């Protein structure tokens, strides 16, 4: 019995020894990482004059001891050579603001190291930006209201600067709502601008004499509207006793006073909304119409105050 125990013990020791000796015997040798070159210094002057001859240089190191090669590039001017740790560069005579200088350092094994600098032309004079030219020719003419386009010399979409070029500074500059007015002196003219400072909406009020091609404007009788423009797409009441005749498809609205005469005129971009607007309220069109009505109400409220 003792002999069997000894044999079993010897077998286990041998197996354990073989297991330890065999560990890792199938592992392959792993190549260590090869590091990219490190650029310690990249020397390029900060500025040049046309025709100057300047020196560029680079100092690089490779941790693996690999031999390094250097390649240079410029986007203007001429290099004496495009290889080596030092190169001479002749600056261009061109009237350019700066030149990009690039060096590539390669060890032939790992990823190439790239460095870039810009060298400025000290004689370069930055051109002045072109002056913005504002058209100051009234369009449409000052005496004319054009439905869906404009009135009193200003077209929808014109920059607000053109309004000032033609009519001067408004007494009420565009506020948070974008409303501007010309009441002092009283031109009977106002409007809204959008977020880009372009004219979005125009109003003609007393004492402005501008009229449509059919002679409709402030003070004309209500029956004259239909003679020129046909039946209104929508008629409703404002909060100040006026009756509004909306010509949505033509881009114009007339507010009628108690004397059945035009009290004020609004000009806006046309929207495709029919006479059965309340019966067939297509949502996007109705929303656009409501926005226009809100602007109209904002102006009317401001006018009353």
Structural write-up:
The chain has 305 residues and is α+β, with helices and mostly antiparallel strands. It folds into two domains: 38-121, Immunoglobulins (Immunoglobulin-like, Sandwich), CATH 2.60.40.10; 145-273 and 281-304. It has four helices and 18 strands. The chain has helices spanning 2-22, 160-167, 223-229, 283-304, and strands at residues 38-43, 47-48, 53-61, 69-74, 78-79, 86-90, 98-106, 113-121, 145-146, 150-151, 154-155, 179-183, 186-193, 199-204, 234-237, 243-247, 252-256, 262-267. Strands 12-13-14-18-17-16-15 form a seven-stranded antiparallel sheet, with helices on one face. The chain has a four-stranded antiparallel sheet with strand order 1-3-6-5, with no helix packed on it. The chain has a four-stranded mixed sheet with strand order 2-8-7-4, with no helix packed on it. A hairpin with a 5-residue loop joins strand 13 (186-193) and strand 14. It starts with a helix and ends with a helix. 27% of the residues are buried. Residues 1-11 and 13-28 have low confidence and may be disordered.
